[in-house]
Specification:
This protein is an alpha/beta fold. The chain is built from 17 helices and 24 strands.
Length: 581
Amino acid sequence: MRNTNRLRPIFLTFEQWLPRWSLQHRLCCSKPVSVHSNEESRADKFKTQIATGPRFHDFVKGASINKQQPVITDDLIDTDKHAYLPEDSEIGNSRTVCFETYGCQMNVNDTEIAWSILQKKGYQRTSDVAEADVVLLVTCSIREKAEQTIWNRLRQLTAMKKRRLKTRVPMKIGVLGCMAERLKSELLEREKLLDVLAGPDAYRDLPRLLSVAHGGQQASNVLLSLEETYADVMPVHHSPQGLSAFVSIMRGCDNMCSYCIVPFTRGRERSRPVSSILEEVHILSEQGVKEVTLLGQNVNSYRDTSEEQFCSSEPGQLSRGFRTVYRARPGGLRFADLLDRVSLIDPDMRIRFTSPHPKDFPDEVLQLIKERANICNSSVSAYLELVDNIKTIIPGVSLSSDFISGFCGETEEDHLQTLSLIREVRYNVGFLFAYSMRKKTHAFHRLQDDVPAEVKQRRLEELIGMFREEATKVNSALIGSAQLVLVEGESKRSAQDLCGRNDGNVKVIFPRQEVAGQPTDTGTDTSPVNPGDYVLVKIESANSQSLRGHALSHTSLSDSATRLPDHRHDGQLASVARHGI
């Protein structure tokens, strides 16, 4: 006999999509949304918003645009909002939730946003899976291995769920983020390992989804948004000693790289209003955070059009020699403007950003990095012309990049050219992976994954070896210099050592000991070095991963910029003499 009690997914009606999916009128919109009278129904407004919104052709240069508008019929609109749930059903009632975060730093930020939303609804957080009422996996889809890790973990959690005592609240399992967006059908229907599924733009809906799940049904919301940036949600930051924090400034990506799944799992680029970003950075500064990283899939294409004074007809500038098939978006407050404002909030707070795209590095961004001592001089590049320009404007800059081995059609000559590029650029840091084909991407539909796995692995190992060799040379050039280091805490390998990071984000290890404080009118006293302190460290040895030395003195970020104007560069050894060392 067929089991009629099987869990079935609950799907959203159009009415429930409205807060996240509808195109709100923006002051810089090229196609203004029609204004209706108060007597028109909400459904009528929704039809008009959909009909007048942009389509793919609006974003591509030279594309012909079909003016025929789609027809939205009444049977697509359901105005019954959550009628199956009681009014207080979204309250957490002190249920415990455990987050497990996988993948990039954006997923860490997503975890902080999701927790902020659930915390306000009365949920409690735990790090013990065995004690959790709800387990939420924040997932990554960038490579097959990352997804396989999640599949294995889901099976483990399902076994744990079945073993749970009947006297306890049944465990609910949810998948959030990119994997939820990419594999929604497989996760809900084929494997039946889940209770809740929420895409990157559906975290506001988590309380309702969990309420449905606690009622014994599956719940899903994987709709992508053209507006959602969570600008009004203050993330609950979790970092060691609270010294550093990541601040999301935008979501999504428009680059459509042939190998990448991100535009399909995180949607179009949307920039968070600058006022919201500045407010969060102000709060972090007041909390004593010493380092903030501005975060986005393509962070330096930031463009805020939320206020009228930001609007203009001028398109954004690209790096010299770069071009794009996409139409330049006019107007908006650009990344250089945001970086300028953020860096002025606290002169003793380091500012980093990740991940930038080479095409979006106009000279104004590079000049700003050069001028502001608290904007760290580490950036991403893949092209020699841009690298030369960066090194000319910012001497001593630290460079990092991502590399994939074995992309479709890659020949041995292509691989050798990549090795040559690494040798010439001399990156400080590299993130290297073997290519993993993703469904929906251009490569999946048009190309063939024709590089054998063993060849991918061999080439990957050669790339890693070249990176280590060149990074060792770069770091060894710092021997004898004095590096400005933000102390993070005790070294993992020895309680007698402390560690921190220099301006180029390279780990610096040095013995725990009292050092001279900043000079005063009455002289200089010694004091211990604590997490959150800035110290000058003279470098004595180096490898591809880290620097070693001994601490010279306490300092501050703003003070070092005055007393050590070239603290980032090769002139650092000369500056040591000015401290009487």
